[in-house]
Amino acid sequence: MPDEDTRGADDPYRIDLPDGWTAVTEGDRTTYESPGGTRRVQITEFSRGLSLYWWVDVYERDGEDWTRVEVGLGESYTRADAVASAVQSYLDGLAPEPDRRATVGGERD
Questions:
Q1: Is 12:32 a contact under the CB 8 Å cutoff?
Q2: Which end of the chain is less crowded, N or C, counting CB atoms within 10 A of the terminal residue's CB?
Q3: pLDDT tens column, 64-106
Q4: How many CA atoms lie within 13 A of 101 on its CB side?
Q5: Which residues pair with residue 52 across a beta bridge?
């Protein structure tokens, strides 16, 4: 199955992303971004003492500014599979972004 091998090349959490979304991992942070650049989900890995945790932040862009969105994911997780499941559940519940390139001329006055 070739898609499985290439899909998560830069995604340590192996999230099944909606069409057009990208995953970029830099250091301890993995960022998922929508194709329109208006939504972003970030997973940050950190440690306290000998324990490893993950934090999830969700943002929406309005113009040039990113605003953190409260969606119940802004908490820490103690298992990588739990954080991946939370992010997957959030992404699965998103409504698709409107395609700004597609304009139907018949609806204009």
A1: no
A2: C
A3: 899 988 655 667 899 999 999 999 999 999 877 665 544 444 4
A4: 2
A5: 47
Give me 35's structure tokens.
């194709």
Q: What are phi and psi of 15, to 5 degrees?
A: -70, 140
Q: Which of 61, 57, 5 is nearest to 31 (CA)?
A: 57
Rg (CA), the chain: 16
Contact 27, 33 (CB under 8 A): no
Q: Among candidates 46, 77, 71, which has minimal Cα distance to 59?
A: 71
What are the helix (H) ranges across the chain? 2-7, 80-92
CA angle 65, 104, 92 (to 5 degrees): 50
